[in-house]
Amino acid sequence: MRKFRVDAIVLLLLLIAPHAAVAPQAQGEGPLRLYIARHGETDWNAAHRLQGWTDRPLNELGKKQAVDLAESLRGVRLDAIYSSTLSRSRDTAQAVAGTGIMVKSLPGLRERNYGKFQGGSDTDPVYLARVNVWDDTMDGGESLNQLLARTRESLAQIRREHSTGNVLIVAHRITNQMILRALLDLTPDEAVKIQQANDEVYLVEFDPGAKPRLWKLVRGGNLGDL
Questions:
Q1: What are the start-end ranges of the H helices in the chain?
Q2: Is residue 172 flagged as an active site residue?
C-alpha cells in the first residue's frame, strides 16, 4: 500500500453549519467520518509541562476552546463521541455533546505515559533526545510503540461500534499522532511531525472502495494554513 505523506494529504476544510444536531444510531451503508480533536488547553500546556497521565483540568482558555469546538461542529450530525478517561479530554468532549449524546471514555485514548519525565518541561534536552525513539519507555512510562498498540485497539473498538456515520474522538497531542498513523498508514517520521494545536480538529473520511481522505478545519486562528 502506498504511504500517505502528511504534507500531501492535509486538505483544508471550513465547516459552516447553522444548527447543531445529533443523529440517531445508524449502521447502514455509507461513509465513516472520524472527527479527531485535541482537548482544550490546561495550565500545564501553557507552562510547557508534560502532562501524560496527570489529570489536569482545562484552564479558562481551554474551556473557551471547548466551546469553540462545539460551535465549529454545530450541524454535524454526530452518532457518537469518544474521549479518553482524563478530564481535559472528557470535559472538551462534553462541551460538544451537551445533553444530547453520551460521551464514551476509553482508557486506550489517554495521552502517552511519560514516566520520569511526567510533570517536567517539554523543552528538557534529555527528554527531547528520547521522545521520538519508538521503543523508549521513558523510565517507567510507555514507548510510542506501546501507545500505538493501545490506540489501534481503541480505534478497532470504535470502528466495530460505528462502521458508518459521524464520530468525534477527543484525545491528546501524541495520541492523535498515533491515531493518524494507524488510520492513514503513516511512517513513524511522518506521524511525529504532526503538530495539532489545542483548538484544532481533523476529519478522516472513509468511503467504501476509496482511499481515506484527511481534512483540516480552518478557523480564524489558523488562516495562515491556507
A1: 6-9, 43-46, 60-72, 87-97, 125-130, 144-161, 173-184, 188-192
A2: no
The percentage of residues in the chain with a pLDDT greater than 70, rounded to a whole number, is 88
Neighbour-count burial for 50-65, b at 16+ CB within 10 Å, e otherwise: bbbbbebebbebbbeb
Helices 144-161 and 173-184 meet at what angle, rounded to 10? 70
Range 114-134 average pLDDT: 98
Mean pLDDT across the chain: 89
**Pick from 75, 51, 76, 89: nearest CA to 179:** 89
Instruction: Assign domain 6-203 to a CATH class.
Output: alpha beta
Q: Report the chain's C-alpha Rg in angstroms.
A: 17
Q: Is the pTM above the cut of 0.85?
A: yes
* 52 neighbors 114 (Cβ within 8 angstroms): yes
> Cell triple for residue 39?
482537548
What is the pLDDT, as a whole number, of residue 99?
Answer: 80
Catalytic residue among 19, 29, 39, 41: 39
60 carries an active-site annotation: no
Q: Which of 111, 190, 200, 205 is catalytic?
A: 111
Q: What is the dihedral of CA 7, 145, 84, 208, to 10 degrees?
A: 50
Domain ranges of the chain: 6-203
CA distance 186 to 224: 24
pLDDT at residue 15 tops 70: no
